[in-house]
Amino acid sequence: MRDRTIDAVRAVAIVGVVLGHWLVSAVVSDPGRVTDLHGESPLEYAPGLAPASWALQTLGLFFFAGGFAAVRRRSATGGTGRNRMRRLARPLLALAAVWVPAIVLLDAVGAPAPTRHVVVSLVTHPLWFLLVYLALTFAVPVLRPLVARAGGWTVLPAVALVAATDVTLFAGHSSWWQPVTVVAGWAVPYVLGMLCATNRLDRHGFALLGVGVVGGTVLVLGFGYPASAVGVPGQDFSNLDPPSLFTVALALAQIGLFLLVRPALARVLRRPAVAVPIEVLTASPVTIFLWHQSALLLVSFGGLLVGRPAGLLDAPDAGWPLARLRWLPVFALVLAALVTVFRQFESRRVGGADGGAGNDIVDRCR
C-alpha cells in the first residue's frame, strides 16, 4: 500500500514553496514609469516577519521525500537517474517554449532592462532545485551502500562542508567549492529520507527536532546567522545560497516534527476530505513548481493595466503583507489554469515504489 504520509510531506512542501515565493517575491513598478519593474522583498521592510519563513521554506521536506522515494522506487522498479532526466525534459521544454519567445518579445518591444531581468529571474530561479535533485538522484548508487553501512553518520561530511563554507562566507570570502555545498547541504535531508524508507529513522523524531531547534537558535543568537530562512536583498549572508547550517537545522526540525506526528497523520489521511487535496497537489508537482512564478508574473502584468495595485505592484512596506494576502487566491486560480494546460507534459508511468506510492517531485506513479 502507498505511504500517504510521504504524499502529505510532498504536499506540504509544494504549498510551502509556492506560498513562500508568492509572499516574498514582490514585483515592484516604478511610480514614474509603471512598466519598469524590479524585485524586492518584504523582509527588507519588516525583518520581524522572518519567523514566517521558517514554515514556508520547505525545500528540506522536498529532498527528504525525494530520498525516501529513491530507495522505494529503485527497490521496486530499478529506476535510474537517466529515466528521471527524461521525465523532466518535457515539462522543462514546455516552459522554455513559452518563455524564451516571450523574453525575446520583451526585448524587441523595448521593455526596460530591469523588467526583463525580473522576468528571467523569477522564471529560471526554480531550475536550480531540479539540477540539485538530479545530482542527488544520480548519486543514489553511491549513497545507498554508504547509508546501509554508516546510517545517519553518512551526513557528517556534508554538514562539515556546509560549516566550512559558512566560515569562509562570514569572513567575506567566496569558495570554489560553493556549488558543491549546494548539493551537500540538501544531501542531508535526502539521506534522512533514504533512512526513513528503510525504517531506520522512526524513533529519532525527538532527537532531530531537538537538534534542529536548539542548533538553529544557537546559530542565530550565538553566531549571528540571519533569522530569515530565505535570502534578503542587502544582507551579506544568505541562509539559502548556498544552504547554511541554519538551513540544515531547519530541515532537521521539520523532519523531526513529521516523524513525531506521522502515526496520527496516517490515521487522518484515511479520510477522503484530507486525502483528496493531497492527491491533487501531488499529481503534477513539477508543473506546479515550474509555473507558480509564471502565475505571479501574469497577474502582475495584468495589474499594470490599473496602475500599482496594493499588494501587487507597490513597494512591500509595512502594510504590504496583508494586502498581498488578497492576491493569493488570484495567483492560485491562474496557476490552476496553467497546470491544467501544461500538466500533459509531465510524464507518468504505471507501477510504483515509494512503498507502493511511487510518486515524488519528478515521478507520479499510480
Automatic annotation (TrEMBL):
Molecular function (Gene Ontology), one example: acyltransferase activity, transferring groups other than amino-acyl groups
Entry keywords, A to Z: Acyltransferase, Membrane, Transferase, Transmembrane, Transmembrane helix
Keyword Aminoacyl-tRNA synthetase: no
Domain (Acyltransferase) ranges: 6-339
Keyword Chloroplast: no
Membrane spanning stretches: 12-29, 49-71, 92-113, 125-143, 150-170, 176-198, 205-225, 245-265, 286-305, 325-342
InterPro entries noted in UniProt: Acyl_transf_3_dom
Pfam families to which the protein is assigned, alphabetical: Acyl_transf_3
Protein name (database record): Acyltransferase
Organism for this UniProt entry: Virgisporangium aurantiacum
